[in-house]
Design brief:
Number of helices: 15
Structural class: alpha/beta
Helix content: 25-40%
Distance between the termini: 64 Å
Shape: globular
Number of strands: 25
């Protein structure tokens, strides 16, 4: 029945005729939801959206705590032909204001406890409709869905139509909205399902956020196209995750998941006996973590490499050698090359910029044609901004970033926003934010600050002033003061010296 809607058809096909099969289980309550109930609810959401005036191509923004209702909203948005716009639940009102003004969504769904907090930015963005949804599935969205008219069928959407906009971070300026199509998401999900051998027998432990590529467009989409099931954890809790290993087959996580599980005394080969696959991504995993996980469990974590703009690009093989420290081989249909800044292709083994091309590649940045042109070559190659090399076996290793992007716990953080927030504080001359290694999160934020002559503002004073302006994951874990920031002859701050401590 979804033939006219490319992504919905792809996601629905595996469970068609198996409507009674369980799709989701809430480990905290034991409540289960069948595949048929999930899609029936998504259809009601789509009807509710249409009744609110949402048309194909309209944006539907959501900042709500993780729940099955958020998944139903995602699928309902796709069925209505609209564009799903998930927002990090940690974003402050000021940050939400930017996204709403930039994307101009027809509808914004938020947690009822934050509606008053967002009142001013919602008014400023001239949002047509605002609904609420909490972690337990309650709110005005639910009420609207309950009274929705019968579903009239999905809006026709082809592979090239937009399905989602995900905002990504750069090292300068504001966040960019990556435009992802029905074809991007469908092709990536099918490719990974086949590569990682997901089937209707798989049960995925889902403890990732639903506003991020990894948790939504990898974990959820793969499970749907495989016809499998999920154990929907609202957050990552090592005790709860370990308790679910005996009824699951797979886990997708960030390196932090694995370091915390390794710290648990109950992690043994016996405890993961029913598990066939552990996937890690969104940030590099330390080689020591790889080795310790293999020693404790007898299994090797599978690392892969993706971006907001491309979904997944590479993966270590399911069958074959998984090389620690590498992100594996290009996915089927995805081309990857290493180049100079001018686009000259480098031979294997040499370090350069990573560029990719394929059906997974986004359509460009929302309202930013100039930025799109800067990062997309005329022949379709996307300049990722990552630095890496390809070994003789074709495995890709990422060695750094050409920009100073910080990745902490799988979240992208751009230093410029932190610096701009700190620099406006009275008594501060300038600041430089950068990433430093963190055993748990991969990286954490550190900031070097130059105070005005004779200034006495403290690190605690600065934290107090910026805590309401920045999401918690962006807040620095280390603040230190310097007489001057190190610069090269061109005046550029040398963050490599700050990271190394050579100042």
């Amino acid at each position: 029945m979804y033939d006219g809607n490319h992504l919905a058809r792809t996601l629905r096909a595996a469970s068609s005729g198996r409507e009674s099969a369980t799709f989701s289980t809430d480990p905290a309550t034991g409540q289960t939801t069948s595949s048929g109930a999930l899609w029936e609810r998504a259809e009601r959401v789509a009807s509710a959206l249409v009744s609110l005036g949402v048309e194909p191509g309209d944006r539907v923004a959501v900042q709500a705590e993780k729940s099955l209702g958020v998944l139903e909203l995602y699928l309902g948005t796709i069925l209505a032909g609209a564009i799903h716009l998930p927002l990090n639940t940690a974003y402050t009102a000021a940050e939400i204001g930017y996204f709403l003004s930039d994307a101009s969504p027809r509808l914004f769904v938020c947690d009822p406890s934050r509606q008053n907090e967002f009142a001013d930015v919602i008014s400023g963005a001239e949002i047509k409709s605002v609904l609420t949804l909490d972690a337990d599935g309650n709110g005005s969205l639910t009420e609207k869905v309950e009274s929705a008219a019968p579903f009239q069928g999905p809006a026709p959407r082809g592979a090239d139509d937009l399905a989602a906009i995900l905002y990504t971070s750069g090292t300068t300026g504001r966040s960019k909205g990556a435009m992802l199509t029905h074809g991007n998401l469908a092709s990536n999900a099918e490719t990974l399902r086949d590569l990682w051998q997901f089937t209707k027998e798989d049960v995925l432990i889902h403890a990732l956020p639903l506003f991020h590529t990894h948790g939504l467009f990898v974990a959820i989409n793969i499970t749907l196209v495989a016809g499998g099931a999920i154990l929907l954890h609202r957050a990552f809790d090592p005790d709860a995750i370990l308790a679910d290993f005996n009824r699951a087959t797979s886990l997708m996580g960030v390196p932090t998941f694995y370091t915390r599980l390794l710290a648990h005394p109950d992690l043994t080969q016996d405890s993961i006996a029913s598990m066939r696959l552990f996937v890690s991504g969104s940030a590099p995993m330390l080689a020591d973590t790889h080795r310790e996980w293999q020693a404790r469990t007898g299994q090797t974590v599978l690392e892969r490499y993706g971006m907001t703009e491309t979904c997944m690009n590479t993966s270590n093989p399911y069958e074959g050698v998984r090389k620690p420290g590498t992100v594996g081989l290009p996915l089927k249909g995805v081309e990857l090359r290493i180049t100079t800044a001018k686009g000259k292709v480098l031979p294997r083994g040499e370090i350069g910029g990573i560029e990719v091309r394929g059906p997974n590649l986004f359509k460009g940045y929302w309202n930013m044609p100039k930025k799109t042109a800067e990062e997309m070559r005329p022949d379709g190659w996307f300049i990722t901004g990552d630095l890496g090399h390809i070994d003789d076996d074709g495995y890709v290793t990422i060695v750094g970033r050409s920009k100073d992007l910080i990745i902490s716990g799988g979240y992208n953080i751009y230093p410029k926003e932190i610096e701009a927030t700190i620099d406006q504080i009275e008594g501060i001359v300038e600041s430089a934010a950068f990433g430093v290694p963190h055993a748990d999160f991969g990286e954490s934020v550190a900031v070097a600050i130059v105070r005005e002559a004779g200034g006495t503002i403290s690190a605690d004073d600065i934290m107090a002033k910026i805590s309401g302006e920045l999401a918690r994951f962006k807040l620095p874990r280390k603040i230190f003061f310097v007489d001057a920031l190190p610069r090269n002859t061109m005046g550029k701050v040398q963050k490599n010296l700050l990271r190394s401590g050579k100042i």
